[in-house]
Write a structure and sequence with these properties.
With 256 residues, this protein is an alpha/beta fold. It contains 9 helices and 11 strands. The strands form 2 sheets. A 6-stranded mixed sheet has the order 2-1-3-4-5-6, with helices on both faces. Strands 9-8-7-11-10 form a 5-stranded mixed sheet.
Length: 256
């Protein structure tokens, strides 16, 4: 499976493109904006091979020619997106589902008030969204609900949650159970060993969580497993780990 990427390299080649690149760099945590780098081809390939999410404010032809020598396959290549100089259109070029380019494209389009141009055929099939939840003992339902609602509003697409999932040590946690009930869903639980099977897709691996429950993350891993269990296909994170003082949530998506 693909390792979830957390660094974004943004490339621009024109003055208008620089404006868009600067806007994205200011809005996206962990991003690097390279405007007219001296060795553009080398810089782009290096970012790609370092598994950075790559955003190019330039023509698709340039991107394809530059990255062609380092392309491997959709299971290992990082997400690559192309934007026009006005930021009106966002095109996921590579790793739409496996790498999260489609979901990342939604986020960028919303930031720029633009339009996602998604050409992946799978997007015409039915998406399945699953929610992963973690909390400390006795966490009130209201805190989980508030975190969920504030996080889900960031998506530019309508979402209907098909499953709520967590780790088995939380199977009797009242706050999580009551929250699942508000969505008319039962709580699905997985063992720490099962959750570790998708640890290479986590956006963050927490040693603290590992020491407490035996896996590096609960919300993201549970969401990924639940989505894959429903569709039988690979899942991607569309909302990475979000947290407040007492709970965490994540949303994963797969396609039937």
């Amino acid at each position: 499976m693909k390792t979830q990427t957390t660094t974004t390299s943004i490339f621009s080649l024109t003055d208008q493109g620089k404006v868009i690149g600067d806007r994205l760099a200011n809005a996206l945590e962990g991003s690097i904006h390279l405007h007219r780098p001296e060795e553009f081809s080398l810089a782009a390939r290096a970012a790609f091979e370092q598994n950075h999410r790559c955003v190019f404010v330039c023509s698709t032809g340039i991107i394809i020619r530059v990255l062609a020598p380092v392309l491997k396959d959709k299971h290992t290549d990082p997400p690559v997106l192309a934007l026009d100089e006005q930021g009106k259109f966002v095109i996921p070029l590579l790793s739409g589902h496996e790498g999260g380019a489609s979901a990342f494209g939604y986020r960028i389009a919303k930031l720029l008030d633009g339009t996602l141009v998604n050409t992946t055929a799978t997007d015409y099939s039915q998406p399945v969204y699953c929610l992963g939840v973690g909390s400390d003992k006795g966490c009130p339902t209201e805190l989980i609900k508030d975190l969920f609602e504030s996080s889900i509003s960031a998506l530019a697409e309508p979402v209907n949650i098909s499953a709520v999932a967590s780790i088995d040590v939380k199977q009797n946690e009242t706050g999580i159970l009551q929250f699942a009930d508000t969505l008319s869903l039962s709580l699905q639980c997985y063992s720490a060993e099962q959750l570790r099977s998708v640890e290479d897709q986590l956006s963050v691996r927490s040693e603290i969580v590992f020491n407490e429950v035996g896996c590096y993350g609960v919300a993201e891993a549970a969401a990924l497993l639940a989505a894959t269990e429903i569709t039988g296909k690979a899942a991607e994170l569309v909302i990475t780990k979000q947290k407040n003082d007492r709970s965490t949530i994540s949303v994963a998506r797969s396609y039937r």
